[in-house]
Specification:
The protein is of the alpha+beta class and 176 residues long. The protein has six helices and eight strands, in the order E-E-H-H-H-E-E-E-H-E-H-E-E-H. The protein has a single domain, classed as Aminopeptidase. It is globular.
């Protein structure tokens, strides 16, 4: 998949970007917000290459995990994803993002997520869910900027409680 916005290109990760992925996922300030339990830092380039292979395997349209590249200089600022939630009983799909700290605060997460939401609904998904740790105010701010509906706290998909936001196809069409 390739999506373009004014400032970003959303596309598959490439193996030559393994050092950037390692830099991203070896940072506690990034992985603290990913998944349940203790954060697991990426350890080396071999692990980065393995992760890129997994991302490619998961790329089954309209779902996938993609690099977010800044068009201006070709730097990968992070990842955006559209994946089935863990422990999903009805195939619920989650949107998510994680960016390198050198790219925080510039609107890239919102811009990339907006493009991926458009992709999801164009592909016929009825709704997309976003969840975050309950104390991840930065991600929740992105969810609000996207116009997602705050549905409170859930323990449905992860062991720990999560803040739950939802965008339906109807809501998306009404605000687009």
């Amino acid at each position: 998949m390739h999506l373009a916005t004014d400032r970003l290109l959303i596309r598959p990760w490439r193996h030559e970007e393994a050092p950037r992925l390692l830099d991203l996922l070896s940072r506690l300030e990034v992985v603290t917000w990913l998944g349940d339990g203790e954060p697991e830092l990426m350890r080396d380039l071999d692990e980065a290459h393995e992760r890129i292979d997994k991302y490619v395997e998961r790329d089954v349209p309209p779902l996938g995990m993609w690099a977010v590249e800044r068009v201006e200089d070709g730097v990968v600022v992070g990842t955006v994803l559209l994946m089935t939630l863990p422990n999903a009983e009805h195939g619920e799909v989650e949107i998510g993002w994680h960016l390198h700290p050198d790219s925080w605060g510039r609107g890239y997460a919102t811009e990339a997520a907006r493009a991926v939401l458009g992709h999801a609904f164009a592909a016929g998904l009825p709704e997309v869910i976003a969840v975050s740790h309950t104390d991840n105010g930065a991600s929740q701010a992105v969810m609000r900027r996207l116009g997602m509906e705050d549905r409170g706290i859930t323990d449905r998909w992860y062991e720990e409680e999560s803040a739950l936001f939802v965008m339906t196809a109807e809501r998306w069409a009404a605000q687009s």
